[in-house]
Structures are given as C-alpha cells and as structure tokens.
C-alpha cells in the first residue's frame, strides 16, 4: 500500500510541484522570509566583493550632497529600512533637518538595513542548500503547508510594516520641504529611500503571490493524496472483505471435502452393494433356472403319468387281444401256416448271410493287399530317409540344442583342444544342422570330453556352408539385459535370421544385474582373453550360454574399475571408457577364437567403437572377413566425449579427430562415436523409414544430418518387428485367460482381472480402459501423457500407466500424481517396470496412447495391436509407419488401425482421444471388427529380417567382387 501511495505521489504530485517556483521548505529568519527566486537574483547582484566593500565603506563615511548618487549600485540594490516607529512619532520629528548629524544618522540607518539584507541573503543561500537536500521528503507535505501559511502571515505583517514605513517617509518629506538649502539633499534622500521601498514592495508582492499559488498547489496535492488515501482505505476494506470471503470459501471447501470423503465411502459401499446385488441377481437367475428345470420336470412327470394311463388302457386292450390270440392258437391250421412262414424267413436270412460272408472275404483280401502296399511304401520311405539323413538338416531339435553344440565347439577351440580348422568345420556343421553331428552328440552323451572329441573330429570331412555368419555386438539383449527397445531388436532379429538358416551369435557385457535365470547352460570357459586398454593388457573372463535359443558370449573384464559391476547398465560417469573397453575386448574374442564372420553388426553408440577399431586395428591382424553393419536406434544419444578419451582403447586420436572421421560436428575438441560408426561402417541403418528421413534434417539429426546426407548411399531405414512368440495372447502364460482374434471373450476377462488386481472400479462394462507403458522421458511426451490422464477421466474412461523416469523431477511429478489417484476408482500409476504386469495391461487395454515428441520406431504400438489394443499415436518416426488413422480416406480400409494426431500439444491429444471414445461407444460392432483386424496384422521380424538379409548379402557380394577377403 505504501508503495502504491509513493508511486502515485511521484507520478502526479511532484509533476505539479516541480513546475512551481517554490519547491522546498524554507526556514524563516528572525525578521522575514523571502521567495527563493528573488533571493537568487539578489544574491547575484550583491555577491561581488567590490559591492560589499562599497557597502562597508559607506557605513563608516558621512553622506554629503556630492557623495550620494541615486543611480549608483548601492542605491539600486538597497532594501527597505526597518525603522522604529516610536522614534518616528509626529511629536519627536523636527520641522527641519539642518545638521549633518541628522543626515548621517538617517544614512546609517539605511546602511544598517542593507547590512541586515546581506545577512538575510547569506541565510537564503543556506536555505537554498537545505531546499535542494530536502526535495525527496514527499511525506512532509502537511508540515510544509503549515510553514507556507506561517510565511504568508509573516509576509502580510511585513507588508503592513512597509506601508507604515511609507507613511513615515511621506511625513519626513513634508517636514523637509520648507528649507531650500537642503532641498537637493532631501530629494536625493527621498529618492534613496523610495527606491528600496518600491523594490521591496514589488518583491514582497511577488513573493506573496507565489506563496499563495504554491499554497493552492499544495492544497490540491493534499486533496489528491486524501482521495488516494480514501481509495486505499476502500481497497483495504475490499481486501478484508475478500479475505473474509476466502475464509468462508475455504470452510465451505473443507465441508465439501468432508462430504466428498463421506460420498466416496458411500460410493465404495455402493460398489460393494452393487457387487452383492450382482451376486444376488446371479443367485436369483440360478434359482430361476432351477425353478424352470423343476417346472419342466413336473410337466414331464405329468406327461409320463398321462402316458402311463394311456399305456394302461393299451395293456387292457392287449390283454383282450391276447385272449383272442390264444383262441387263434388253438386253431392248428393257422399254426401250420405260421410255421411255414417262419421257415421261409429263415431261408432268406441264410441266403443273405452267405452273400455277406462272400463280401467280407473280398474286403479282407483288399485290406491285406493295401497293408502290404503300405508296408512296402513305408520301407522305401525309411530307406530314403536314411539316405537323406546325411544330407538334410535335422529340424526336430530345438534351437537351444544347436546353440549348445556351437558353444561347446567354440569352448574346445578357446581351450586349445581342437584346431581352428576343425572348429570351423564343426561350427559349419552345426550351422547346417547336420544330422551326423546330432547323432554324434547323442552317441557321446554318456562319454567324457576326451572320449567324445575323436567322434566329432571324424565328422570334419566335407561340410558345406548354407548361409551367412552374423555376429551381433551389443549392450542389450532381451530378456537378460534390457532397458529399451534395443534389447528386443537384438533378440528378435537374431532369432529370425537364425530361422532363415543363418548362423547368428551375440556378444554382451557380463553385467552383475542381468536376469541370470533367463540364461541356460551358463558356464565360464577355461581360458582368458587379453585386451589392450590405457596402455596395458587386461584379462577378460569369457562366459557362454544360450538365451532364447541363441548362442551368447558374455565378457567379464578383470579391470580394477569393475566396469560392469555397477548395478545398472547405463548412466555411469565413465560410460565412454566402459563400452570402448568392451568393444575392443569383443573384437579380441573374435580374433582369438578364429572366427570368420560375414557380418559384424554393432548397435548404438555403446558399441559404435567396433567400426573404427575393426578397420584400424583388427583387419590388419587377420580379422578381415566381415562387413560392418551399424544400427542407430536413437540419434539423441551419441556418447560425445573429449577426443583424448579415445586413446584409451588404442585408437589414434590425431587420425580420427578430423571432420571427415570422428570429430563432432559442433565441437572440434570432442569425438562422436555415432559419427565414427557412420563413417567406418559398410551398412548404416536406423529403425524406421520415416525416422531415416527425419534425421537427415537439421531438426531431427541432432547435429549429424550433414554426415548422414554425405553417406546417404549406405544409409537405410528398416522398421523393427516384434517377437511374435513372446508377444502372443493365444500362448501368453502371463495372462489370466488366453485369447485370439477369433475368440475375444478372454480379452474382456483379462480386463476385469486387471481391474480387480489394481483395485479399479468394475462398474460399467463398456467403460474404455486406456493403457500406457513407457519410459517417462521428454522424448515420450510426458506432458501429453499427464494431460491424457486427466482428459481420460473427464471423458469417463479409465487409465493405467506403467513405467518410471530416470529424470528425478519427472519421477517426483508422477509420484505426486500417483499419490493423488492412489485410491481412485479409475486411475492407477505404477512407477516401475514389471514384465508380467506389462502383458496384463496390453491384454486388458481397449486403447493404448503413445504421444511421443519423436519416436525412432516404437514397439509398444505393435505389441498393443497384437493384443487387440487400439493405438492412439502421434504421427512421427516409426509410429507414422505403423499406425494409420481410421478416418483417413487416403489409406486403404484394410490398413487403418488406430487414431493419430500430428501437432504435439494438448489439443491434438484431445481430438484423438475424443474420436477414439466416440468410436468405442457408438460403434461397438465396428470396434470389435477393428480389434480383430489389428490382431491379425503381421508385425513379426520376418519381413524386417529379409531386408537385413538383403543388405548383408549385397555388402558381402560387393566385397567379394572387389577381391576383398
């Protein structure tokens, strides 16, 4: 309030005051007060030392006729003398002034008055200094007004005093007129006295007018301030009223909250009553069914009783007929006829029996001939199968079997028990799934390793290679080490390539936080692989095992920093060192194991070091059979680090920290592993065609768009697939009820089961359930997910979120939302990742929302559709390539499978959600058909694997055509 008053005063009051002559508080002198402007003028006229000297001299010298000049400076600047009225009474004034003593006395009075005036001017100088120092005192206006009134009174008194002095001066003139001798002197004296009198009168009049105008201005300012003060007081009263209203509203709000809690309790009771009512209705229906059955049984009993009565009548009639028959039997003729008839019938039966025996004999003969023919065919097939056993692969053994055999052969090689050539030949036989090596394994099952080795070595005579040899070097693999979609891609693509007849192996770090229960036959090899780092060699343990039927090598560095014993996969301060160490150790393993892969496939920045390491260090050492394929799953994460850190893994910093190699495009003293992999790889891919186009722009490329455009000929986007074996509602063991596109009843039962598990309301079978399974990071549109939660509630639906955030403030924000809805009937947030719960949410959801700001591929929309959940997605990256709007007439009807929006804002989410809810509620049959359609879409790895297979084959063919190894 004080601030508002001072602001108003400065903006309005001072603007008026500063325009007036007077702008300060002037303390009164002992005699009178003068206006500042007049004082300044007089100060200029009397401030010179010369004039002051003249005044001092005049005060000591007598005045003569020749000495006094009315036009002199002293006369022009003299002020009005202050005379004693008692000395100027008519009785004491002489009739004439004849002596010089009287003249000198009058002149001395004038000079004394001038000296007083000089002192007053000096006082005025001090007053002016005080005035300039006190201009900021705004709150003293009322004091200054009182002072101004006092000055007005003093000025009035001085005016009266001057008028009295004028009357006395006139009397002196009249008294001096009789004598001629003193005429000129008297005239000069009159002029000398009249001039300061008139000047003083004028100045006092001007000062009085200015003081009056200033007083009026001050009064106006005071009135304005009073009005503002009244306005402020009214504002204070309004604030007090608003505070009272706020308090009353808060009390009302508390009452409403208490009522709401009571109503929620009532609603919970009502839900219980509804369940009890539902149970009672079911019991009544069961009783009604029992009653209907009892009624039917009673009706049947009545019918049977009626039939019994009719039968009784018939029995009576039959008894009467029997009596008649007995009468007929007594007749011999009739009996004879009856016997003849029976004999004829017997003969006919014998003829028919004989003909049937003949037919049966012919059928038996035909059957025996057919059995003999079948036996001959079976024997020939057995002979053919024996002949083919040595040439055709064995298909009835699981992939884990062949992966175990492969790891066993590699273990023998690394442990120096077989030669490199023998290992290569045996590995190719496993790759071919040769029946001979299968039989050898079965024959040696009970033998020890020394006895089994000769049996296997005898098989190394004539193997043939059926396809490509691919090795994936990655930081993730589902389900043993998974953070995002990378792990799913490595596993899904490898399994699909394996099924297509290619030999596939995976190399992973051995994390301490892996899902070890998902690894079969895990064991450590009796060998140590040494790899270079930071100027010395470090040992690495090598573990082998099978995951999802795939052979996997796990590298455990024996480094003092315990690179992969951190309790998490990523997020460490030395990630650059950890994964550059792993990349070199992985290549060292391939070199020492004598492997000759056709393709080495590395993923993301964590293993992007493989490409420059391979060509700079390992190809010259003999590991030169492979072409390098690099896949970037998300260009937002590039692993940029100071160039000097690249030297730790043995790479030449000076050669690689160049604009055309690994130097980051934004900082010349830093290296970019992603850029290095793009430059040094033979094949570069990303995870969807649309994302491949987006990252070639300045906005989407995160600084690498120029590099990608330069290497565009080897850059392609291939849409990821999903593992349709792991994500299959018809065989999913995590589900309460399994179901398929042809039988959707199980989906409704899974929805009800999830509601019970999460304590959501089961009221309203047609209430849609919206699901979201995601990492809560800005890329995924967390602000749009938050908005979708509240908008779903407004639309009358239910929302379930599963996921967590590595960003602390986002995690805290969603923890607050989860706490807000922890007991809500329709909202539930589970801020962690739970594999089994994710399957349940996919199967229970009617809709699935993916509002990503950017999405390289995205697997959740594919998995959701696999389980019959309709996606609501933003058109970006892989979402644009896999979700097509049901209302988009430019898309063929059979491909429309969801609801999309383009602008990443709340309005876009609202539009898509509202359309989905309306479609769900208003077109139940069309929705059912849409669910069945999306469940039959093929998002498997088959088509994606065929595209990778084509890229692999072309790269290998180009290398062979160029005469490379």
From TrEMBL:
Location in or out of the cell: Plastid, Chloroplast; Plastid, Amyloplast
CDD domains: GT5_Glycogen_synthase_DULL1-like (cd03791)
Coiled-coil zones: 117-158, 201-384
Entry's Gene Ontology molecular function annotations: alpha-1,4-glucan glucosyltransferase (ADP-glucose donor) activity; alpha-1,4-glucan glucosyltransferase (UDP-glucose donor) activity
Documented EC number(s): 2.4.1.-
Bias kind Basic and acidic residues: ranges: 88-101
Enzyme kind, highest EC tier: transferase
UniProt xrefs under InterPro entries: Glyco_trans_1, GS/SS, Starch_synth_cat_dom
Species this protein is from: Trema orientale (Charcoal tree)
Main location per the UniProt record: plastid
Domain Glycosyl transferase family residues, every copy: 766-915
Reaction(s) catalysed by this chain's protein: [(1->4)-alpha-D-glucosyl](n) + ADP-alpha-D-glucose = [(1->4)-alpha-D-glucosyl](n+1) + ADP + H(+)
Protein name, UniProt field: Starch synthase, chloroplastic/amyloplastic
Region span, Disordered: 42-101
């Amino acid at each position: 309030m004080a601030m508002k008053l001072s602001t108003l005063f400065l903006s309005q009051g001072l603007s008026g005051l500063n325009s007036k002559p007077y702008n300060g508080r002037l303390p009164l002198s002992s005699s009178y007060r003068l206006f500042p402007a007049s004082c300044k003028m007089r100060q200029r006229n009397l401030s010179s030392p010369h004039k002051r000297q003249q005044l001092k001299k005049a005060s000591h010298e007598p005045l003569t006729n020749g000495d006094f000049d009315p036009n002199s400076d002293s006369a022009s600047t003299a002020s009005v003398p202050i005379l004693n009225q008692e000395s100027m009474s008519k009785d004491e004034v002489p009739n004439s002034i004849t002596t010089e003593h009287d003249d000198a006395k009058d002149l001395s009075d004038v000079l004394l008055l001038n000296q007083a005036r000089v002192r007053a001017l000096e006082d005025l100088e001090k007053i002016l200094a005080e005035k300039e120092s006190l201009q900021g005192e705004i709150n003293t206006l009322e004091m200054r007004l009182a002072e101004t009134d006092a000055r007005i009174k003093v000025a009035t008194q001085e005016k009266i005093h001057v008028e009295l002095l004028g009357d006395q001066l006139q009397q002196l003139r009249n008294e001096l007129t009789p004598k001629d001798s003193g005429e000129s002197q008297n005239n000069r004296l009159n002029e000398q006295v009249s001039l300061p009198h008139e000047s003083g009168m004028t100045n006092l009049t001007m000062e009085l007018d200015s003081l009056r105008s200033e007083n009026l201005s001050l009064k106006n300012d005071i009135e304005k301030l009073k009005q503002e003060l009244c306005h402020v007081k009214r504002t204070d009263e309004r604030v007090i009223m608003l505070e009272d209203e706020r308090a009353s509203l808060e009390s009302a709000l508390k009452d409403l909250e208490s009522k709401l809690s009571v109503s929620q309790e009532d609603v919970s009771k009502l839900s219980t009553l509804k369940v009890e009512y539902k149970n009672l209705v079911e019991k009544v229906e069961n009783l009604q069914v029992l009653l209907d059955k009892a009624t039917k049984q009673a009706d049947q009993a009545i019918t049977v009783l009626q039939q019994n009565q009719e039968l009784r009548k018939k029995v009576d009639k039959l008894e009467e007929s029997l009596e008649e028959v007995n009468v007929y039997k007594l007749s011999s003729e009739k009996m004879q006829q009856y016997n003849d008839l029976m004999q004829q019938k017997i003969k006919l039966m014998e003829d028919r029996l004989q003909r049937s025996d003949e037919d049966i004999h012919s059928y038996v003969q035909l059957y025996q001939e057919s059995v003999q023919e079948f036996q001959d065919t079976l024997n020939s097939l057995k002979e053919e199968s024996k002949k083919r056993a040595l040439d055709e692969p064995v298909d009835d053994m699981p992939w884990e079997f062949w992966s175990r055999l492969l790891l066993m052969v590699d273990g023998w090689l690394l442990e120096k028990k077989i030669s490199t050539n023998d290992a290569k030949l045996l590995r190719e036989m496993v790759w071919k799934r040769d029946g001979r090596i299968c039989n050898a394994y079965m024959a040696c099952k009970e033998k020890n390793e020394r006895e089994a080795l000769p049996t296997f070595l005898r098989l190394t005579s004539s193997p043939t290679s059926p396809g490509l040899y691919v090795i994936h070097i990655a930081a993730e693999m589902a389900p043993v080490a998974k953070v995002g979609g990378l792990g799913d891609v490595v596993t899904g693509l490898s399994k699909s390539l394996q099924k297509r007849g290619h030999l596939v192996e995976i190399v992973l770090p051995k994390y301490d936080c892996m899902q070890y229960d998902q690894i079969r036959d895990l064991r450590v090899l009796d060998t140590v692989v040494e790899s270079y780092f930071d100027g010395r060699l470090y040992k690495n343990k090598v573990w082998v095992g099978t995951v999802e039927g795939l052979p996997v090598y796990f590298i455990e560095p024996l480094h003092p920093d315990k690179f992969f014993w951190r309790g998490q996969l990523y997020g460490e301060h030395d990630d650059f060192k950890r994964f550059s160490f792993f990349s070199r150790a992985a290549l060292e393993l391939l070199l020492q194991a004598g492997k000759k892969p056709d393709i080495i496939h590395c993923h993301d920045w964590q293993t992007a070091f493989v490409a420059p390491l391979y060509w700079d260090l390992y190809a010259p050492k003999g590991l030169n059979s492979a072409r390098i394929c690099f896949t970037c799953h998300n260009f937002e994460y590039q692993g940029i680090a100071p160039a000097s850190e690249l030297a730790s893994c043995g790479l030449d910093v000076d050669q690689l920290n160049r604009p055309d190699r690994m130097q980051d495009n934004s900082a010349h003293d830093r290296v970019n592993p992603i850029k290095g992999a793009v430059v040094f790889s033979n094949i570069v891919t990303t995870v969807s065609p649309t994302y491949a186009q987006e990252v070639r722009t300045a906005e989407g490329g995160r600084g690498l768009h120029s590099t990608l455009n330069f290497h565009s000929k080897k850059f392609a986007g291939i849409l990821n697939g999903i593992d349709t074996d792991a994500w299959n509602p018809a065989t999913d063991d995590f589900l309460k009820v399994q179901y398929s596109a042809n039988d959707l009843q199980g989906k409704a039962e899974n929805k009800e089961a999830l509601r019970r598990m999460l304590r959501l309301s089961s009221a309203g079978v047609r209430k849609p359930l919206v699901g979201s399974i995601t990492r809560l990071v800005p890329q995924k549109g967390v602000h749009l997910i938050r908005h979708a939660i509240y908008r779903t509630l407004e639309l009358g639906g239910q929302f379930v979120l599963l996921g967590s955030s590595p960003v602390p403030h986002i995690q805290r924000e969603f923890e607050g939302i989860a706490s807000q809805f922890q007991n809500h009937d329709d909202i539930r947030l589970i801020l962690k990742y739970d594999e089994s719960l994710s399957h349940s949410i996919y199967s229970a959801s009617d809709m699935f929302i993916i509002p990503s700001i950017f999405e390289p591929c995205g697997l959740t929309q594919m998995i959701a559709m696999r389980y019959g959940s309709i996606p609501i997605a933003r058109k970006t990256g892989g979402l644009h390539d896999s979700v097509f709007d049901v209302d988009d007439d430019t898309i063929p009807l059979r491909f429309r499978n969801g609801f999309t929006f383009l602008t990443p804002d709340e309005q876009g989410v609202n539009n898509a959600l509202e359309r989905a809810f309306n479609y769900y509620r208003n077109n139940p049959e069309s929705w059912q058909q849409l669910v069945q359609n999306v469940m039959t879409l093929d998002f498997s790895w088959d088509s994606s694997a065929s595209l990778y297979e084509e890229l692999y084959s072309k790269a290998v063919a180009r290398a062979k055509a160029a005469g490379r190894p």
